[in-house]
Amino acid sequence: MKFMEFLKSKGATSSIFMGIFYAICMLGIFLPGYTAIPKNIDQLPIAIVNDDAGLLGEQIEESLAKQLPFDNIKTDLSNTAALQKLEDNELTLVVHIPETFSADLQNSDVSSSIDFTLNEAGATVVSSTMNQVVSQINTQLQNQFSQQTAEGILMNFNVPQEQAKELAEKMENSYVGNVVAINDIPDGMHNNMLPMFLTMALYVGAMIAAMQLVGAFKANRGKATKTRLFIYVQVTAILIGVIAGLVSTGIAFGINNLSSDQFLQVWGQQILNYWVCFNFTAIVVFLIGEAGMVLNIPILLVQTIANGATISRDMMYKPYEWASHITPMYYSVQAYFANLFGSTSVSPYLTGLAIVGLVAMLLNIVIVWLFHKPVDKAGNQATATPIG
Predict the structure, then answer these.
(1) 73-82, 154-163, 321-330, 360-369: range with lowest mean pLDDT
(2) Cβ distance 36 to 317 under 8 Å?
């Protein structure tokens, strides 16, 4: 056999195709997706809450709105409402100017502060960006309250020059930026990426199992009805989810410093993750056979951006944002952020994950019913189409 003949064989041509195809997929999906950083930083929603009863609060609010690099700034929320939205990841930063801000600036015995509150339990880029932005803004505000600048501000409010100079001397060192981080994640990239790694650990295995179990479904046609075989496939997937979920949870708890109280919750979600990911990836395998794996890999790659572990939905380009609504990984990753590091409710994310799984299973039932003909014990297709 000559080398050119070998190159023309099915295995060689398939390998060449897969090498080129996945190189195109990897770069064609990742590079455009990550151009959103830092390009779409301005899309992140923040809130400025001005409760100051004095003269300076309004001016500081206007100044911050101009200085902060965000287009989506909400100024009509109470501090309580804004903090709740921050907790639920509907906002990425809350800037609060307290009621006594102006009065404290004029009191040399009291430090005046603006509160910058950010949520660490979310996309990595968001929390790191907010920390950088807050640091820069605090530096600018400290410079703004230098004696010369403060004196000019006060004179703009028609404060007499001598009085303005005296107040400015008090204001020069009276400002302190108060940065508050809620739902702090322990140090270490393994903690930041744990929600994504827990999800992917079972997603990849479920994707391979989809090919293998659907293959077993087809190989055993004629030995049992389609209904029974489909149930066997589902029960097997759940059984694998229980075992793989226990192993993956044990490894995570062995490496990461997690509370033992969370073990059963994480294990339960891992079981749900596996079942949902199996049914989701089995759709194309039931539909077009083993070739469905060619499509499952790019779908997985899209989700590594669309899952919200690195960038939030607000920063994603539309195709990735759309994918985050209909694929499992976003709901799983956000559920882990809420469960492991946050204090917001995990229920909406687990509900979304379960809905994706149920819809995927129903699609698989329809595909089996329409495209997989009943087979008799001799291996011959029957003419009837109903499942069972």
Answers:
(1) 154-163
(2) yes
Other beta carbons within 10 angstroms of residue 307's beta carbon come to 26
Alpha carbon distance 34, 304 (integer Å): 11
Distance CA 203, CA 240 (A): 12
Cα(297)–Cα(302) distance, integer angstroms = 9
Mean pLDDT of the chain: 86
In angstroms, the CA 181 to CA 93 distance is 10
Closest by CA to 198, choosing from 320, 316, 329, is 329
Within the chain, where are the H helices?
A: 3-7, 10-34, 36-39, 56-67, 79-87, 101-105, 124-144, 147-156, 161-171, 189-192, 194-219, 226-255, 263-288, 292-306, 318-326, 328-336, 347-371
pLDDT computed for residue 337 by the predictor: 94
3-state secondary structure of 176: strand
Contact 134, 93 (CB under 8 A): yes
Contacts of 268 (CB under 8 A, 6+ apart): 245
What's the rounded Cα separation, in Å, for the pair 89 and 71?
A: 17
| 318, HSE (Cβ side, Cα atoms, 13 Å) | 0
Summarize pLDDT for 331-358 with one digit per residue, the tens: 999 999 999 998 789 999 999 999 999 9
Q: Is the peptide bond before 328 cis (omega within 30 degrees of 0)?
A: no
pLDDT tens digits, one per residue of 168-184: 555 555 667 788 889 88
Q: How far, in Å, CA of 124 to CA of 220, rounded?
A: 46
Using DSSP bridges, classify how beta strands 93-97 and 112-119 pair: parallel, antiparallel or unpaired: antiparallel
> Positive or negative, the Cα torsion across 164, 166, 169, 170?
negative
CA distance 258 to 252: 8
Domains of the chain: 39-182 (3.40.1710.10), 189-371 (no CATH)
1-34 pLDDT tens trace: 788 888 888 888 888 888 888 889 889 998 999 8
For residue 149, which of 175, 178, 133, 171 has the smallest C-alpha distance?
A: 171
Contact 91, 85 (CB under 8 A): yes
Distances from the Cα of 175 to the Cαs of 95, 149, 297, in angstroms?
A: 15, 13, 53
